[in-house]
Amino acid sequence: MKIREMRIPLPMSLDQYHVAQMWSFNEQSRRETGGGEGVEIVKNEPYTGVPLFNGKYDSGQYTYKIYHVETKIPAFLKTLLKPVVGKNGFQLHEEAWNAFPYCKTVITNPNYMKDDFKVILETLHVEDDGTTDNVLNMSADEYKKVEQRTLDIIADKGSLRDKDMDPVTFRSEKMALGPLDAKTWRKTTKPIMTCYKFVSVHFKWFGLQNKTEGFILDQYCKMLLALHQQMWCWADQWHGLTMADIRALEAETKKELEKEIKTKDKKGTKIVD
Fold first, then answer.
1. Pairwise CA distance, residues 242 & 93, whole Å
2. pTM of the entire structure?
3. Residue 257 scores a pLDDT above 70
4. The CATH number of 2-35+100-253 is which of 3.40.50.300, 3.90.940.20, 3.30.530.20, 3.20.20.140?
């Protein structure tokens, strides 16, 4: 198992990020669904009585999604797996407990790899500039094994960035903020918060474990950088919305996705090796 901590600072408050996150995940689902692939939302409902983060959070929003992702699988894995995985082998099942500012997500492949594959994401959102160590209060020995990486939405070039968006030049009219200076924005911008995301990857196949776990972590870095760059560039679309607005939008999107996944045209970004 490999684990990486990804720190993603953003020029917004925690409350703003909560709305931005939900709106952006919803928008990404719409963009990625079509032609038999994309996101199937099975459940999206409040939950209580599930203690997380040492019992600090026990209620929030539970989601259960199925990702149909054949074109998102790396070529070396698809070549190996396709003859044997069957119809549903390229489905990833995601359960998430969003007790913002903490969130836990578990991704599995129950139809084929079962206990041999699991991705666990633990996320804590903190009002800082991305310089706090060990926000999950792991033991010193555990934390030594974690690779730290900061993803800078302005300074880092994202390979999956939407060609029509440029976080370097973007200015939010509603927030009266930007363009942000790549060298100084994390020290000079207010408000600012950081998404601390710990991604653990377990892929138990002899001969493929190290390569695949490293590949998955690298893809998460690319995906999370691109998503948060888009989140900043979408600021004028989500700014001012309430959580009630978000829940109404999610209900509409669920119906849309149920139709789109049955269409012929595939959508979204292919992951390459």
1. 28
2. 0.89
3. yes
4. 3.30.530.20
